[in-house]
Amino acid sequence: MQVIYSGDRMTASEMITHAIEDRGVYKKDVASKMGWSAANLTNKLRRNTITADEFIKLADILGFNVQMANKGIELPVKKKPGRIGTRVVATVGDEQFDNGSATQICHKTNSVSIDKELYLSDKGKFFIVTHTSDGITNVEKCTKGQARILYTQCSEDEIVKDFPE
Predict the structure, then answer these.
(1) Deepest in the core among 31, 106, 130, 165, taking most CB within 10 A?
(2) How far apart are CA 51 and CA 45, in angstroms?
(3) How far apart are CA 16 and CA 40, in angstroms?
(4) Angle at 82 between CA 119 and CA 71, to 5 degrees
(5) 73/70 Cα distance (integer angstroms)
C-alpha cells in the first residue's frame, strides 16, 4: 500500500500526526520507540520542531519510507569531472556510500546504455554506481578484486585515477 502525504502547506508534524492516526497507534508507543516521553513527542508535534533525522526515524517506526519525488522540474546539475551521473548517496547493508565525497577511479560505458562508475570511499571501501538509460541508479559495494576487474575493462580515456594498491 502506498500512502502519499503531500501538499504545499503540510508540515512534517502534520504528516507524522496523520501517519499515527492512519496506523491507529498510540503516540506514547511511538515516543517510546524514539526514546522519548509522550509529552516530548506531543510538544515536538505541536511546535513543529521535528528535525529531518527525527522525521525519517518516526516515518520508519510507523512503517513508511521517506522519498523525494521528481516534480519534473529540471535543475542544473553540477557534475564532478569524470562523473557520468549525478551525486548518489546510498546505504548498502550498514555502510553509507556517497560518490560526492568518494574518489572516482574510472567509469565504463557499454553498448547497452549502462554506465558504471568505480569509486573508493573515504573509508577505503570500493563501490560501483550503475546508471541505466531508463534512469535507474544502483549502488553496490565490491571487493578490491571486483574493482580491479572493472578497472582493467576501462579504456585509457575512462580512467580518472590510477588504481590504488
Answers:
(1) 106
(2) 11
(3) 14
(4) 90
(5) 7
Beta bridge partners of residue 159, listed in sequence order: 106
Rounded to 5 degrees, φ, ψ at 82 are: 90, -20
Closest Cα to residue 160, out of 88, 101, 76, 84? 84
3-state secondary structure of 90: strand
pLDDT in tens, 99-151: 888 899 988 887 667 888 999 998 999 999 988 877 778 889 999 999 999 99
Q: How many CB atoms lie within 10 A of CB 91?
A: 10
Q: What is the C-alpha separation between 50 and 43, in angstroms, rounded?
A: 10
**Among candidate residues 84, 5, 17, 19, the one with its CA nearest the CA of residue 48:** 17
Whole-prediction pTM: 0.51
Dihedral angle of Cα 23, 29, 33, 35, to the nearest 10 degrees: 140
Q: How many helices (H) and strands (E) does the chain have?
A: 5, 6
Residue 1: pLDDT over 50: no
Ramachandran quadrant class, 18 (left: phi over 0; alpha: psi -120 to 50; beta: rest): alpha
At residue 106, the 3 state secondary structure works out as strand
> In the block, which residue shows the cell 557534475?
79
